[in-house]
Amino acid sequence: MESCPSIKNILLLDSEGKRVAVKYYCDDWPTNNAKETFEKAVFTKTQKTNARTEAEIAMFENNIVVYKFVQDLHFFVTGGEGENELILATVLQGFFDAVGLLLRSNVDKKEALENLDLILLCLDEIIDGGIVLETDANVIAGKVASHSLDSGAPLSEQTISQALATAREHLARSLLK
Question: Which string of DSSP letters, residue by residue, matches 69-131?
Answer without folding.
Answer: EETTEEEEEEEETTS-HHHHHHHHHHHHHHHHHHTTT--SHHHHHHTHHHHHHHHHHHEETTE
